[in-house]
Write a structure and sequence with these properties.
Helix content: under 10%
Number of strands: 8
Structural class: mainly beta
Radius of gyration: 13 Å
Strand order of the largest sheet: 1-2-3-6
Strand content: over 45%
Order of helices and strands: EEEEEEEE
Length: 99
């Protein structure tokens, strides 16, 4: 794991890096998702290469987490973030973890 961001106390978005293949990965996890195994929550996991704008996003109703989404992070900076309902806003970081 390289970094993580809190999502207004509702969840956390995680950024990882795989040195062997150069890929960054993002997963968004909801806090307390195991409390109600039937409930679905709108969640987003998003990652983008700044060099060319290529992005991957997973956005849907989930019980525990959104993602993983991947981009090749070599020789570029990364924009990344996530959202968990009912947070007032998502958490995002731009032009970070440049490789």
């Amino acid at each position: 794991m390289v970094d993580s961001l809190d999502i207004s106390g509702y969840g956390r978005v995680f950024l990882t890096w795989n040195k062997s293949n150069g890929y960054n990965c993002v997963v968004t996890q909801k806090y307390g998702a195991n409390d109600d195994p039937i409930e679905l929550y709108f969640m987003t996991a998003w990652i983008q290469r700044t060099a060319d704008g290529f992005e991957e996003e997973d956005e849907n109703l989930y019980r525990h987490y959104a993602g993983p989404v991947y981009v090749d992070g070599r020789a570029t900076c990364i924009n990344w973030g996530g959202y968990v309902d009912p947070a007032p806003t998502g958490s995002y970081q731009f032009r970070s973890h440049c490789g």
